[in-house]
Amino acid sequence: MSAIEVKNLTKKFGDFTAVSDLTFTLEENRVLGFLGPNGAGKTTAIRMIVGLSKPTSGEIALAGQNVLFGNSSANHLFGYLPEQPSFYGWMTGVEYLEFVADLFDLKAKEKKIADLLNLVDLTAAKNKKISTYSNGMKQRLGIAQAIINDPKVLVMDEPVSALDPIGRREVLAVINNLKKHMTIMLSTHILADVDRVCDDIAIINKGKLIVFSSIEELKTNYASQIIEVEFEKDPASIISDLKKEEWAEKVEKENHRLKIWIKDQAVIDENKALKFFAKAGMPVLEFGLKLPEVEDLFISILEDKK
Amino acid sequence: MKAFFTLLHKEATEIFRSKKLLILGIIFGFVAISSPIIAKIIPEIFKNIQTGGITFNIPEPTWRDAIDQLVKNTSQFGLIVIIFMFAGAVAEEKSKKTLEMLLTKPISRVSFVLSKFVSAKLYISGVFVLSAVVFYSYAVSLFSNFSLANYAWLILFLLVYLLTILAVTIFFSTISKSQIMAVGLAFFGSIIFTTIIGYIKAISDYSPAYIVANYKDLMLDGKFANFLPSFYTSIGIIIVLVVLSIIFFQKQEIER
Known about the structure:
heterodimer, A: 306 residues, alpha/beta, Rossmann fold, Alpha-Beta Plaits, 2 domains, four-stranded antiparallel beta sheet, globular, B: 256 residues, mainly alpha, 10 helices
């Protein structure tokens, strides 16, 4: 059984089509990174998937059960964490979790809540009012409420975007822990995080799905290798000549570093790049070959689709 | 059903902790205590400001004057306090986005709207009935004894009038995006339901505010049957507005 099944999902606001004919299937116990530039339709799609927004057309099934707008019959099967979750500030953290546990009619909720507070590292703050929590604490409480029912599917909209690096690391650690037990779909624009936690990625742009693939497959099939070089001095002067080389597909500069997308393995085997830098009189400090990261793939794919 | 009681408990706790219950208690308590006092001292004040040459013929105050004050104050303060306190019931959950996570839990939207209405109804009823008891004890001690049965009918009809305002408020809170919008619409809606209908002769007997305009007859002769058309209409309006709130809310998409 598929964990998430989305068929021909479309959402229109008047003449504007926010999500167009979105179709994909995610198998159980996979982590899907749902990517796209700002305004691509990620949040609109997610809100339809969890039943908060009514699709113009299309079907959604989570863990085999259809999600119907305004009907909560599938709600016990999934957990949902919106971007910047809002809580009742007058409740304490533990009270909020008790409230949610009661909505699910959970048995032995005290132990469950204690375990969750421990997992998201909020035990010490459990009796403080949520209005006094930091963004990171709220995000972690948001994760706790989303998984309190041991959902088969966990859907998270930008779970780390509002967090500082420490908060981000903490939340990613929690997600990494959870991926053993459930299927996760998360949208994010922090692409390095996708590399860290996801198995599959779906990229949407202007409401349309342009790629759905496992990250491994994507890296193998889609992208070329990248050479990263650090120079002693600013390499700006050689960029225009470098771009003319038939083996260099794309060049990006960052301070004294260059990132060069190469055409094929022969570039490495025949040492074409180093020969070029020697000829150009650019002393190299560091030279390395790296596999593309999701960020590189994402940019390449979006540029291709343009 | 369990989810409904969980939501009801949450609403009840919120009303208590946000001091809404305290404010309700203070307002209705003030009305209950001040109404007999005002009825008692106003003639005294007039006597003291009489100047030579002009004679005010001021009758001795009675419990009827206290009832006048009670009805006037309840209808005015009640309207204001209920609208301001409960206009945010649903609208605020939308504007503050707390609804987002809640509606992805296994709860029906019917339970959500009903929990809002029932919790507010229970608190308003409790506080108002308690304040009515305080008023009666106080009025009887300051003035002479009066019919408890007639007074009980008056309180029942006034309570239904207040609950009609509550239903109007919750309805507009459900269809509004913000609390401010809900306050404005609830005032507008309450004025239509309670005041304007009263001015249309053909249907004025059915106005929820009929009790506010005709309570003197009830207190004097106890003929509550005259008030039943308005009573049943009010109950009907409450039911229709709660059902409409549920229908509208079920169709609403929760915006980000």
